[in-house]
Amino acid sequence: MIDWLRSARSANFYKKRRRLPKAAITELFRTIRQNSDTPSQNVFHHVKQPLGHASWSAIAFFYERAPSFLELPEEHARERVCGFLMLVEYREHVVIFKSGLDLPSTFKTDYLRRAGDDRVEGAIARADATFEQIRLRNMATSKYALRSKTLEANDLRTVVGPSGASRYVPRGYRVRRGIDHYSATPNTGRISLRSDRAEYQELVDWGVAVVDMLVDQNIESSPFIRAFARPVDLDSMPADVLPTYIAVDVPTLMEQLFDEPEGIRIVRRIGDDTAILEKNEIDTILALLDRTLTVRKVRGELRITDPQDHPIGILNIGKTRISLRSFEIPEIENIYVEPVNQPEGEDDLGVPIRRYIDQNDLFTILFSDLAIVYLDGAPYRDPSLGDGTHFLSYLRTDQRLNAATSEKGGFTALHTAFDPDSVFGIVADRIAVQDEILICDDLGDEWADFIGINASSQPKTISFYHAKHDGLTLGASALHVAVSQAIKNLGRINLAADAVDAKFPGWRTAYVNDNVETRIQRVIRGNVGTIRETIGTALSSPDTIRRVFIVTSSLSRLRVEERFVAIRAGEAPRPHFVQLYWLLMSFFSACAEVGAYPYVVCQE
Predict the structure, then answer these.
(1) 540-589 pLDDT per residue, tens
(2) What is the pTM of this model?
(3) CA 151 from centre of chain
(4) Quick one: CA torsion of 455, 459, 462, 463, rounded to 10 degrees?
(5) Contact 207, 53 (CB under 8 A)
(6) What is the pLDDT of residues 105-125, one digit of tens each?
(7) What span, in angstroms and rounded, lies between the C-alpha atoms of 358 and 97?
(8) Which residue of 54, 151, 250, 582 is 20 to 30 Å from 347, comparing CA positions?
(9) Would you list the domain boundaries of the chain?
(10) pLDDT band at residue 144 using 50, 70 and 90 as cut-offs
(11) 595 - beta bridge partners?
């Protein structure tokens, strides 16, 4: 009986891809029942019932499932649950209320597409909204950078500044408008209103009211939400803006596998044989997927190639989304994803992992337009990037790096300092010359190649230096190791006392490399006996500045500046420059999150 229904005002909002006939809904309900184990008679079943200017359809029934936390014998009784699903159709939109039942992916692909982020903003993140909570996803591509963060306050606008906001995409937020509290998850189109449970007529009326807000183009969104990365209409992107790199969203895939009890599992299917993979086997599969892959336009196709330059797939750019037309990695050929609670004997519910990645938009794409990233199934633009001036402000030069010949120089038992034409020597003699204490922390459990402390300056400084030598290039490969090391060790920049104590035995020794013990002391400048006191003085000051330097001979600021000039003149950036740009932007963003100041010191 539909009159028994009581549900929260919480639903997913979609736009129709095409007309949704009565026969399609009837077939949908039949498929949902077929995909459920031992379904009961329907508690209610309605198709295309009119209510005002809308129509609604609904189904509910009991079914069995195995508890996710038990390995039950074959004939053992299982838990019996009741699920319902209700569709409201209004103004070319479909509103889905559900619990315990879900739409098959084929139905969503055929008939639905999500409401755009900008429309959700217009409906919920209005100018009069007070933001109480927001969940953000970083546009940075480094797996060592902060992926996401959640902020919460009575009024976030008063406590969150705009600095760095444009590098984050809002993934969910809660707002207060008058006495109403709304929550929205733009990438799924889910919108909720905090309220008492409602009868079916009230659910239909609420869905209609929200759709009216979604389609109203005259509503101004909040200035607070506009400070973050902005959604872009894929269909309106210029034809010369092309994908350059793609990476599978392995962290989200791992969360769905290991952190969600009612989530998914990975199986290997060979013929009629199916085997559930153990964690060590899954880790191998995920490692194959956790790579940055190049995209090139060849003969009109956007071809995906692996790091060895082997073609493994093709991208397709449609009007509303980017899809994987093909994604062929031999090691995942027989790997499938299926629900944890898949009904016994229903093997057809599983899909190949490459198709699962595509259906769930589990990939990130970089473009020849440096400001755009395709994330969670939609493109976004960082409005702060402009003409490259912001990026160039992080780059400093040192003329001696133009003549650097190696990273660390040569070593003999008579060496008392690093070679002056090595990057290590340039850091010690030139770039870190103002530091009272300079420690070489290279090799072993290193936090940085050098750690510098200045407790006499105002303000005091704590500096980490990461040195790298390579041939001059505008690509990212020469800096991957240095940037990864810098980001991974950002948590060490506060120099915890117990961690520093563990470092002292190594810092008291001479530098050893290539099996040669030199006369270079690890404490290059300063007194070993006063290091703890100097560090304590620096840490005790409330205005001490934390700095992180990447010092490299592989990059020229002038060549980077010339590349931005060419881009502004209309020349498309080369794929390797795009990757370099986003690698360093990941570094700058990660430093900002811990309150550190990032710099890249390079050739002129």
Answers:
(1) 888 899 999 999 999 999 999 999 898 888 787 887 888 888 889 889 88
(2) 0.77
(3) 16
(4) -120
(5) no
(6) 889 989 999 888 889 998 999
(7) 25
(8) 250
(9) 1-231, 235-381, 390-603
(10) low
(11) none
